Amino acid sequence: MVINRFIFHFAFIVLFQGFVFGLGDNQHIGAELSTEDVVNSSQISFNYTDNDPLLDQSKSTIVSEDLIRAYSFSESLTVTSIPVEYQQYLYVDFVDLAATTLSDRIIIKGFNKLKGRVYVNDHEVPCDQNGFFSFDYQFIDYGKQVVYVTFTTLNNQFITLKKKFNYLYEPEFLLKNVALKRDVTYFYNTDLFYSIKDKSIDDSVTRADLAYFLMILSNSSYDIQTVLYVVNDVFEEDWYYDAVNYVLHNQLMGEFLDGNFYPERVISKLELLVTLARFLNQNLLANRDLGFQDFSSNHWSSKFIAASLKSGLIEQSSYLNPDQKITLLDFVDIVSNMQAVKDVFLVFDDLDQGYNEDTDVLFQFLKPVVSFLEDSKDVKSFQLDIVSHRSNDVVYQDTVVLEGTVFPSLPFFIDSFLVTPNILGNFSHTLNLEPGANSITISRDELSNTFTMLYLNGYDDLSGHWLEDLAAKLNYLDLLMGANDFQPKMRISRYEFIVNSYPFFYPLISEKLANYDSTHGLGVTESITITESNDDLSVTESITITDLEDDSVDKDYLYFLIENDVFSLFEDNQFYPDRTMTRIEAIAAIVKFMTLVDEGYLKSNVSKKFPFWDVSSSHWGRSYLETAYNNNLISKNNNFYPDKYLTKDQLIALLSKTTYAKKQLALVFSND
């Protein structure tokens, strides 16, 4: 049915017990049942049919900041760990990765067991059918950055976990000194040195490099428009122009007598230490024995070397090597002892500083997430699985607990009661039932559908029996006699067959029986007219049944069955009501009757290979058994056991497959 452009599709599958002639003592009669028909739950799907926003690429959801916050699990938009109530269902692992990494790729693994989506930043990550995912994330830029992993939940919210990383450039070098190796790596990831990533640790350091380092470290870009220092070999277009002016202005370095700065000249160790001591503004101590064998304490620069020792730029040793040409490795080894440089390095290890946690960037990442959630809401569809019961289940108590799952995990109504599922979408609701069929309405917003449960009176002696539910349904339809005891293994006599078949057969012949007396002109309790054929001559005689009490059965019904050869009389016009019927006799009687009311019964459209080994082609009942099998009155088995006595449960199973019973069962208990 189509209502308001939505199709509500029930995937309810009603399980009726299969009744089949079996082997040994447990022999049933009835319908074949495929294992594909057996289900453990009922599923209700509410599907959008037209212009699905999730499929309509032309639809554009406008995602505002307020809308993003409305869908967020956390008021702060992000969390640093999975909330406790979700830890069994959401998980993320940044595999073998510390906060500081030199690798440009990380593997992000985890799961979302809430049937939701997973995003890394604004990229949707595919999950397998169990919710597991693995994503190869690649860093684009060096430096401190935040990676956001977002989960959508069953209740149409998102949970965003943030993870801070510091992706560092790794220069190519081999060092055994771990501390120096760390300092070199950190230095390569600062802006203290011009074009540092283009340099090798073996490259020489120039005067221009040193000037640039000092200008950046001082955090003071020199204003060349205020004071302009003119040297012959430094020009405005040079990358070191500002740096040279800075060191000249602050008298950290000087020009030579010829008016040149010589920016490309490689610095010596002595020049480096003197310049750094000036930069640090250390107190200069003269006439101090420095202890170097290759450097005199009377040298003009000895006070700068003393300051370098005092400030920890270098350590005391036998040789200073003042004329040593400084490589980048030497440079880092010395300047990393400066407190200002140490402060720069500390930022790399500080997980609270230096990260760009711009809310605008996060909003951009969350837009596709919220767009999906908003579109999911607009689709207005959900799926509900009832795991505790199936639609049309028979229960024998007036109270049941309905349990199941719903996706998405949003509140919905069971009849007039609001049901709120948990974070997994699981719900539980107690229902009070009225006798008979209970149509239970399940709805959310304008979507609704029904789920049927049958509260019936069962038979005490059928508890757990394969016929239990079917017998309760037939009893509800007034097709069975008795209220408490069914006596399933009672052997069926000819009289019991007449009594038990009457509710199933009589409605099919009631119109004929209405005029039965006037047609025959005789009393229903006196005699029956039998027409016999002998040598093409018809002989009609009136016969009185001698072994049935007048009020024991409906005589019109009995006479109809006898006159139409469904049953026969024995010698002396006796019916033998107490005679036990065999299984093949019951099949023959039912097939004869069904042939009377349905001319096509003998001409079934289905012709199946006869499966029963113990009923030969010459057996008197073979044709009846073939007709019953072709019309699905009985199911396939190797043996039929034709001469075994018929029990009541087998008879009722057979009768439930006849025309009137099938129609009544489908009308009352089926949702087709």
Give a quick rundown of the structure.
The protein has 672 residues and is an alpha+beta fold. The chain is built from 17 helices and 22 strands.
Descriptive account of the structure:
Helix 1 crosses helix 9 and helix 5 (269-280) crosses helix 6 (302-311). The chain contains 17 helices and 22 strands. Helices cover 28% and strands 19% of the residues. It folds into 4 domains: 2-51 and 380-455, Immunoglobulins (Immunoglobulin-like); 65-168 and 354-379, Sandwich (Immunoglobulin-like), CATH 2.60.40.10; 178-349, no CATH class; 460-669, no CATH class. By secondary structure, it is an alpha+beta fold.
Considering DSSP H and I runs of 4 or more, what fraction of the residues is helical? 25-40%
Which regions have little confidence, pLDDT < 50, spanning 5+ residues? 1-39, 47-58, 518-526, 533-539
Report the β-strand fraction as a percent range.
15-25%
Structural class: alpha+beta
Number of strands: 22
The 3D shape can be described as rod-shaped
Report, as a whole number of angstroms, the end-to-end distance: 11 Å
Number of domains as seen in the coordinates: 4
Taking all Cα atoms into account, the compactness measure Rg is 48 Å
Major sheet characteristics: 6 strands, antiparallel
Average pLDDT value?
A: 83
With strands numbered from the N-terminus, the spatial order across the biggest sheet is 1-2-3-13-15-18
What is the tally of helical segments? 17
